[in-house]
Here is the input.
Amino acid sequence: MENSLARYNEWLANVRDEGLLKELEGLKGDAAEIENRFYKDLEFGTGGLRGILGVGPNCMNIYTVGRATQGIANYMLKNGLKSVAVSYDSRIKSREFAERVCGVFAVSGIKCFMTKELMPTPFLSFSVREHKADIGVMVTASHNPSQYNGYKAYGPDGCQIISELADAISAEIASVGYFGGQIKALEFKDACDTGMTVFCDGGMIETFLQRVQEQCVKKAETPLSVVYTALNGAGYKLCPEIMKRAGVENIIPVEEQCFPDGTFKTCPYPNPEEAAALELGIKKLKETNAEILLATDPDADRVGVAENDGGKIRMFTGNEIGVLLVDFILSQSKNLPENPVFITTIVSTMLTEKLTAAAGATLIKCYTGFKNIGGEILKLEKRGELPRFVFGFEESYGYMKGAYVRDKDAVQAVMLVCELKSYLKSVGLTLATQLENIYKKHGYFKNKLLSYEFSGARGLAAMRALIEDIRNNPFKEFAGLKVLETVDYMTQTKEDLPKDNILLFRLEKDGQFIIRPSGTEPKLKIYLTASGCADESAALIDEMSKELDKVVSRGHGS
Here is the structure.
């Protein structure tokens, strides 16, 4: 606490921004809040930065953004790197932070290509590749609540940076102080006037949309009625446009969520994985009797899907849509390359293994996060095998076909889901009935994600202690079933994967759960899998959930 108080006083003496200074003064006497904001620096990793907006080194503000950017600039200068692509989403202060990023790079003589307006994250990935930039910065906190912001850092391939680069940049950031002139920045206007910041060519949007269209599987020829919500984010322009180009004529917007709004008044947690975020969309789906709802998150890299089947609303998980899209793509075999490759993650559904094996396709499994899927694509590219890559997805509602970008792309995903829905409608099927057909053919799999929050300094320590306790005292039996295998990804050697803080437990009756800390939020995530008939799988998932609730509750000390 003494160190946190000393850092607080340092900020109090040096901060000049009126809003942040007022916030600092309001913290006087609040020991717990000072501890949470000042006990550590906001960590920079493969996911870049992400934190709650506010004053202090453990929050997102112009000082933490400036420090991280200065560290990246220092790394670039030492390694002869000269250009950066920059974009931002609809979040509070996203534009301000993006301008700060450009101002810091400008002082170091690093040229920035910035979007004129907010754009989806996949467009930033595309911009990096189109400009042949050395680094990319996307100011976003993805699907987090409105009090969060952050930014993702990208490498020259348009993929989020890998661990080695993140570590090297982190070392540079650690050497930068917040005050004393160590962070140097031009005003945004001056950065533009000097030519060190230029806006992206307007034609890039059209080029991006054309690249998306090239990933068409089967154009939506059977008419569809689609409700779309951008959840007040960056998909509000490009997603409706790509649906029109894919053949969808009846697009019904959710008016309250049509346009950018970083306060997310109608969906406090704008995550398309959460039913609460889709409430207005589902209401509109019922009112209009439309056939399908598509919801993209604030930076438009994830999409949630719900279907209206005669008044019965069915929401689909990321795994289910992933399976449906893999099956759809495989069914159109004339469009597949020789020896096709699909990529997914170790926490995504094992049903993908059945589908790809039956089709004679190769499936590569990697760690969670599209940076790892992008990493596998890069390996193919270096071997001259890039044309083999077809499709990648992860259970957290992220999908990507083709390699024109190297991050999940909801602009493309809404197009693919519309094509799939239109095709199924033409043959008298729904998404739900087609999913049942896949289960009947390849086996039933049920998945569930448990997410537990561990906020603040004490929460982080408790989460780390809990994982270590499970690692040192692994389960021998769980939910009444024997544990057949335990895999600790910090020490395992069977799979060609780097060390990571992940634990996997395989149970009898094809049960499985994987434990990992989130890389972007103060949360512990546990992924459950059960296989067999629907009733048995559901019962096993419920039993595992109850047991894990107890385990995590003890770890919380509650």
Notes: The first strand starts at residue 49 and ends at 52. The mean pLDDT is 94. The domain at 221-430 is CATH 3.40.120.10 (Alpha-D-Glucose-1,6-Bisphosphate; Chain A, domain 3).
